[in-house]
């Protein structure tokens, strides 16, 4: 009889604890709700209901693993308590009206793989604490009002595959530590106020498929190591102050489909450059003052 009672008790405790999370994690979710006017979200939370029924919250083994509240009319700031979601693997707050700064406490999210707070109204600098997130694979902060520089320690994110910081107000140089991101596939830094030169050594970035830095204040020659980007499909350098001849090593990028280099000070026979790439579909090499040329090339299936 005692064994049966214990078994029933264990079963009851399992049922009661299903979908429950720690008080610390629940308080962090409530802080997000309160700081972003949760009662006015497009899809809100019933705070009287179990946490595992809250929209956009994924709970596994009584741990909060993901928050997906993209395009949900969040309006307010990000609370520091988000750093208490220590098991979080995905934070997706894309396309809302979140203002204020990115809390440095996000650097406590040791299991995080994806951070997407793009298309909001964020201000201030990118916290250097984010460069300690060794599990991070995707960082999307584009289309905000971020200022300051790209953290020099960005190269510590050894598992990073996607870095999208375009359409902000970031200045300074592109950190040379980016050269260490051997898993990087997309690097989008366009439409900022970046200065200086491109990184000189692309030899470790062989997985890179997209490199876009148009509409900045970058200058200098294109390094010959650009030819090491053997998997590159898009190279967008337009609207900067690059000069000199395009390196001959560029032709080694046989997968290149998009090459946009207009509004710079390049020399040489640029018109013939597009013919050197068998998979090219879009090629722009002229300055706006010359009328501009954007050639869309037909390719056979």
Give an account of the 3D structure.
The structure is a single chain. The protein has helices at residues 2-17, 23-35; strands at residues 57-60, 63-68, 75-76, 90-92, 97-98, 114-116, 123-124, 138-140, 145-146, 162-164, 186-188, 195-196, 210-212, 217-220, 234-236, 241-245, 258-260, 265-267, 282-284, 294-296. By secondary structure, it is mainly β. A hairpin with a 2-residue loop joins strand 1 and strand 2. The chain is elongated and about 70 Å long.
How far from one another are the termini?
Answer: 74 Å
Total E-strand runs: 20
Strand order in space, largest sheet: 1-2-4-6-8-10-11-13-15-17-19-20
**Name given to the CATH architecture of the largest domain:** Alpha-Beta Horseshoe
Instruction: Indicate the CATH class of the largest domain.
Output: Alpha Beta
Tally the structural domains: 2
Which key features would you list for this structure?
301 residues; mainly beta; Leucine-rich repeat, LRR (right-handed beta-alpha superhelix); 2 domains; 10% helix
Outline:
The chain is mainly beta. 10% of the residues lie in helices and 21% in strands.
């Amino acid at each position: 009889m005692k064994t049966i009672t214990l078994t029933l008790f264990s079963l009851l405790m399992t049922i009661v604890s299903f979908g429950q999370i720690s008080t610390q994690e629940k308080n962090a979710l409530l802080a997000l709700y309160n700081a972003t006017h949760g009662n006015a979200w497009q899809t809100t939370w019933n705070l009287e209901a179990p946490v595992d029924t809250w929209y956009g919250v994924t709970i596994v083994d009584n741990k909060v693993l993901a928050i997906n509240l993209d395009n949900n009319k969040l309006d307010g700031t990000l609370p520091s308590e988000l750093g208490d979601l220590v098991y979080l693997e995905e934070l997706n707050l894309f396309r809302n009206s979140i203002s204020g700064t990115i809390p440095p406490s996000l650097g406590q999210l040791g299991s995080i793989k994806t951070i997407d707070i793009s298309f909001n109204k964020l201000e201030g600098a990118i916290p250097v604490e984010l460069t300690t997130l060794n599990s991070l694979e995707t960082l999307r902060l584009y289309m905000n009002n971020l200022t300051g520089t790209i953290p020099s320690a960005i190269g510590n994110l050894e598992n990073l595959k996607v870095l999208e910081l375009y359409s902000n107000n970031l200045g300074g140089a592109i950190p040379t530590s980016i050269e260490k991101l051997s898993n990087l596939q997309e690097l989008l830094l366009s439409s900022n106020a970046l200065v200086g030169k491109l990184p000189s050594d692309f030899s470790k970035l062989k997985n890179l498929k997209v490199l876009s830095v148009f509409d900045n204040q970058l200058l200098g020659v294109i390094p010959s190591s650009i030819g090491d980007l053997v998997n590159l499909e898009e190279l967008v350098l337009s609207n900067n102050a690059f000069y000199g001849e395009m390196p001959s090593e560029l032709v080694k990028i046989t997968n290149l489909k998009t090459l946009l280099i207009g509004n710079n000070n390049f020399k040489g026979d640029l018109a013939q450059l597009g013919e050197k790439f068998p998979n090219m579909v879009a090629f722009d090499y002229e300055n706006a003052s010359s009328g501009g040329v954007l050639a869309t090339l037909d390719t056979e299936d």
